[in-house]
Hints:
Blueprint: E1 4-9, H1 13-26, E2 30-36, H2 39-49, E3 53-57, E4 78-83, H3 86-95, E5 99-102, H4 107-120, H5 129-137, E6 144-149, E7 152-157, E8 161-167, E9 170-175, E10 179-182, H6 186-192, E11 199-203, E12 206-209, E13 213-217, E14 222-225, E15 230-232, H7 238-245
Parallel strand pairs: 1-2, 1-3, 3-4, 4-5
Antiparallel strand pairs: 6-7, 8-9, 8-12, 9-10, 11-12, 13-14, 14-15
Helix pairs in contact: 3-5
Amino acid sequence: MEQLKAIIVDDEESARDVLESLLTRFCPEVVVTAKCANIPEAVEEVARMKPDVVFLDIRMPQYAGFEIVNFFPSPDFDIIFVTAYEEYAVRAFEVAAVDYLLKPVDIDRLKLAMGRVKPQRGMPRAEGQMAMLSDALEGKPVNKIMVTDKGHQHILEVDAIVAIEAMESYCIIHAATRKYTVSKNLKHFETTLAGLDAFLRVHKSWMINKAFLVHYSRSELTIHLKTGLVARLSKYKKAEFESAITR
């Protein structure tokens, strides 16, 4: 069994001990090489131990957990956030992080998170990923998202996304210059882009950027976009769509 080295960073000793115990019992492939109470300690241990994954509490004295990225411009480890604050965890995961765990840690979620770390190892990282993660956790508006297509991570400008098309458990992101096939469902992107007026869910299989709208057909229930792409419009979304594009 291939082993993964892990470091746990949490200002509460009991939380560090509980997570180590869960990893030892339920994730035998994981070896905890260090437990740290703060970011300065973690920076030293990461440099020394070269872990595969770092479990980070978000809210800690002196430094927030995500600030570890400021010490490693090109990190070669994955991050799993462990937090009691779901709104922070969701933003981190959707925008840039590998995964998150909510306290108290659920065993099945822990196993799932570790299963996601393994495929990430050795994957090329997008330049600027960590800076984007930091921005997202600081509550700045989402203007970029990270996607993985064919083993490569890409940071996309949100304004360049024309539409997102669902294909079973996958999505095709239609950008202005190319397409990306991503193993996420449409609900994932609906959550990620929530609050951005430009994006409209117009069908169970389509989300569009109304900035690229050319015209639509009421009779055929189709939406024509500037790149030549034609999206479908649900009859149940028609009234909402018409209201959104006339605001």
